[in-house]
Amino acid sequence: MRFTRDLTIFTCRQSLKCAGGWKCPGPRFYEWRDAPESATAKRRGELALVITRSFDDSNETYGYRRVHADLVAWGVPCGPELVRSVMRELGLEALPAEAVAVQPHRG
Q: Model pTM?
């Protein structure tokens, strides 16, 4: 919206028409927002389920390298960087080695 000296309100289309006939961009944000999920997003969503399963099965001790090795053993085609990226999106972090080590029994 634009105001002139006499406070007349112009819309985007009207002001661009006055400026030489440029075209006003359409409502592309809503087209983008309402678009169906892409194939990449679907694949990452499916991969997230498998990654979460592997991570939970390891008692949250596996990092992306071991999770990737699990996925390869299960026949899931993916690369280590994709696994790392999805794990980061999900907030999955492996426990440090000293937190996982078995403490001797004190009795």
A: 0.64
